[in-house]
Amino acid sequence: MAIERTLSIIKPDAVAKNVIGQIYARFEAAGLKVVAARMAHLSRQEAEQFYAVHKERPFFKDLVDFMVSGPVMIQVLEGENAILKNRELMGATDPKKAEAGTIRADFADSIDANAVHGSDGPDTAKAEVAFFFAGMNVFAR
Ligand code: RTP
Ligand code: MG
Q: Residue 123, class by beta-carbon neighbours within 10 Å (0-12 exposed, 13-18 middle, 19+ buried)?
C-alpha cells in the first residue's frame, strides 16, 4: 500500500473544546504521523479560497462563517493509505450519521460544526497541503 500525505484541519469547534490532543491521539493510534502542523485563524479570503469548490452551494456562507469563527489546527498526516484512513477516522460529514467511535460522532455537534476536515482524494490532498504549507518544511520521519 502506498505511503500518502493528506491535509487535516481541526476546526474551530474542536479547538474551542480543547480536544486537539484527543484527536491527535486517534491519528497516532491509526498509524498516521503528523509531519507538519500550524495553528491559524483563517481570514475570510483564505477560507473562501480553501473551500472554493463549494462556492455555489447553499451552505457556503455558513461554512466560511464557521471556519473563520476561531483558530484552527492544520496538519499534514502521513502514512499508509492516509487519505482514506483519515476519512474513516473522521466519519460522515453529518455527525448524526457518523459511525460510533469516529471523530465526528464523538466530538462534533452538527453538520456545520463538525470538528475536522480531511482531503477527499489524491489531487485535493496535494493541492490542500500546498495551500497551507507551500514553502514550509514537511518533515520526513
Ligand atoms: P470537509 O471538506 O470539511 O472535510 O467535509 P466533507 O468532505 O465531509 O464534506 P463536504 O461535502 O466537502 O462539505 C464541506 C463542509 O461543508 C459543510 N456542509 N454543509 N448543510 C449541508 O448540507 C452541508 N453540506 C456540507 C460541512 O461542514 C462540511 O464539512
Ligand atoms: Mg470535503
A: exposed
26 is annotated as contributing to ligand binding = no
- All three cell numbers of 92: 460522515
**In what order do the strands lie in the sheet containing 116-118?**
33-40, 72-80, 3-10, 116-118
Q: Each residue of 94-117: pLDDT tens digit?
A: 999 999 999 999 999 999 999 999
Q: How much is the ipTM here?
A: 0.96
CA of residue 130 to ligand 2 center, whole Å: 16
CA distance 112 to 126: 24
Q: Where are the alpha helices (DSSP H) in 68-109?
A: 82-90, 103-107
131 vs 24: CA distance, rounded Å: 21
pTM over the 0.80 mark: yes
Can you tell me the distance from the alpha carbon of 12 to that of 44, in angstroms, rounded to the nearest whole number? 14
6 lines ligand 1 (CB under 6 A): no
